[in-house]
Specification:
Strand order of the largest sheet: 8-9-11-12-13-14-15-16
Radius of gyration: 20 Å
Order of helices and strands: EEEEEEEEEHEHEHEHEHHEHEHEEEEEE
CATH architecture of the largest domain: Alpha-Beta Barrel
CATH superfamily of the largest domain: Aldolase class I
Number of helices: 8
Distance between the termini: 42 Å
Shape: globular
Strand content: 25-35%
CATH class of the largest domain: Alpha Beta
Helix content: 10-25%
Number of domains: 3
Structural class: alpha/beta
Bound molecules: iron/sulfur cluster
CATH topology of the largest domain: TIM Barrel
Amino acid sequence: MYIIVERIARFWKKKDGNIRCTLCPHNCIIREGRRGLCKIRENKNGKLYTLVYASCSSANVDPIEKKPLFHFHPGSMVYSLSTVGCNLKCMHCQNYSISQAAPEEAFLVDILPEQAVKEAKKKSDGIAFTYNEPTIWWEYTYDTSKLAKRSGLYTVFVTNGYINEEPLREISPYLDAANVDIKSMDDEFYRKITKGRLEPVLNAAKLYKELGIHLELTYLIIPTKNDDEEQIKKFVKWVMEEFGDEQVIHFTAFYPTYKMIHLPPTPIKTLVRAYNIGKEHGLKYIYLGNVPHGIYENTYCPVCGNLLIERYGFSSRIVGIKNGRCSKCGTKLPIII
Ligand code: SF4
């Protein structure tokens, strides 16, 4: 039986007899006895509680490449934790069985921060909060990340970027890396398909970078929804303008799921076209994901073409990097080893 591990939540205010949660850009107004849109924050007797403080729906050891993070400790293993709930409602969510569930609807196991760090130390090099949205699990991710950093582990968010500025600033000293999903460059897409908005996501991605957190971006290409060339161009232009040519981006393939089973998987040629658009605009590190093994997942030196990191599926081998530089031409590389 699931026992709710509730704690008083952070980031909320009293508002006209109700509560306003200020953790994410929804800023939900929550009446007595009700929960926010993410299903895991509840107003009880005029106080906001998180219902999933240490409640984990999964705890696996994954290669860091699976997050995906390709320029952050390549080849390392990461203890990966999730809970339930999400602050977006993506119709194409690959993990909808946990992301759209309430705590009572899932099998959850309590793993307190101390335990999580102990397990991570035994089995891996870091801790990732992933599979469902870490933002809504802020209290637990904060405590666990703080402990993890003290123990010499790295910490990672795999996130939809739907977070307000204050909570992101507060956790940032304890967060080393993030993969932020940019689901589309169209606000209409965000409103219809995710029940969120585009601008807060773009702002959060910029803030992650500004705060010194290693950032990689993922753009999942969904046929007929966000795959037209203008959208892709808008995305790569934004990346170039805001982050420059060394920003790592992952274009990944969609597979029919949840409320989008009527759509086909992303054709390889669409992904390759996106890759080429990125290259034409000057981006140096573009990867294709959820596709069969190929040259699009290796890392090459942008100056001399030397193979730097060879990848096969989720495994990787550093073959052309010496002291942070290309072993052939000496170019300094934006890769954290
Ligand atoms: S974290 Fe949850 S309750 Fe808080 S504003 Fe976001 S969706 Fe609403």
